Amino acid sequence: MSKGAQISHCLALLLTRGLLPPFEELMNLIYDGKKIESEILKKTLPAKLNSKWNSLSNKLIQGENLGVLKYLLGAQNLGSKIDLIYIDPPFATGKNFSIGENRANSISKSLKDKIAYKDELCGAEFLDFLHERLILLRELMSEKSSIYLHTDYKIGHYVKILMDEIFGAENFRSDITRIKCNPKNFKRSSYGNIKDVILFYSKGKNATWNEPREAFSEKDIKRLFKKTDAQGRLYATIPLHAPGETKRGKTGNVWRGIQPPSGRHWRTAPEELEKLDEKGLIEWSKNGNPRRKIYADEQTGKKKQDIWEYKDAQYPVYPTEKNLEMLKMIISASSNEGDLVLDCFCGSGTTLFAASELGRSWIGIDESAEAIKAAKKKLENIEFQFLGQKVL
Questions:
Q1: Which domains can be identified in the chain, with CATH numbers?
Q2: Other C-beta atoms within 10 Å of 99: how many?
Q3: Hey, is 333 helix, strand or coil?
Q4: How far apart are CA 54 and CA 391, in angstroms?
Q5: Distance of CA 46 to the CA centre of its chain
Q6: CB atoms within 10 A of CB 205
Q7: What angle do CA 223, 227, 233 make, to 5 degrees?
Q8: Using the 8-state DSSP alphabet, how is residue 252 labeled?
Q9: What is the CA radius of gyration of the chain?
Q10: Which of 54, 137, 188, 380 lies in the 20 to 30 Å Cα band around 22?
Q11: Over the stretch 339-389, which tens digit does the pLDDT of each residue have?
């Protein structure tokens, strides 16, 4: 037996004898200087705002977000009150992102450009930066809340383990690939990079979910709905049975002398199948096999998958500005009207703008003066209170 196999065998024995915590609890990220969760929650931060918090539901706050998140939890008692979080934190690139009068881009730069924000933390420092904030964000989340964290392929696998630890691996929902740009021809000894990553977690089992669907394209319709009825309507057929046998209940009964295939059951009770047949919604093959008709013009579209194409703007108003339609889709899927949305790396305010358009309240936080300037411009026709963090 190899050394690795021996270790695995010993761990398995310890687990079965209850001498180790459950496997998922062993999946914690270890790095130098990692703070203990209890220390993070107990730590008091000198965060005060320079204006009195008023009754407006929308807040744009300029300040270092760790202190502001503590302020929201403590002074404003917003623990378990946030219904959706989207964040696009730094990606540990080690770069400065600049902004000019006519350009916001990290590649093309001018000597006159201003620093929009500095992405200087890397390695363990970056992970601990994120660790502290994610713990506070979890405390702010309501029981129906979800969090979407936007990251990239270089750091995302570490962030995934960190989020499993903080939110629970059982609350992981999706690892989403986002196509961010057209193919590039930069010279490099690897494949071209056209994607980044969005990690989607819920607070628990009762998270809001309004399933997003995409309209069928003409190509989809031609591929999926290949039959035509007497009225010229396009349709497809699907089985009337589903996986799994039922010991009790009507869906395991014989219908029209037909027993569901071995290991399967009818999708609906035989009396419902009769009604479908009366409406002409069951197609019978020559050998007497029934299938349900599905008409193209009655479908609401196809279920959205975990590869998204929401490309960044060619001429953004702020570095790393994200696609508005993507944020609208996220907000629609994981919150309801009147819910409270938080983005504590809000940049130019696209999340906040999307939330307003969809009838949600919001709180946005950013430390960068350039980000706040861009956000105010984007939100100029939306009512909100602007607050700044006092420097103590």
A1: 27-212+304-388 (3.40.50.150), 214-298 (no CATH)
A2: 25
A3: helix
A4: 21
A5: 31
A6: 9
A7: 105
A8: G
A9: 26
A10: 137
A11: 999 999 999 999 999 999 999 999 999 998 889 999 999 999 999 999 998
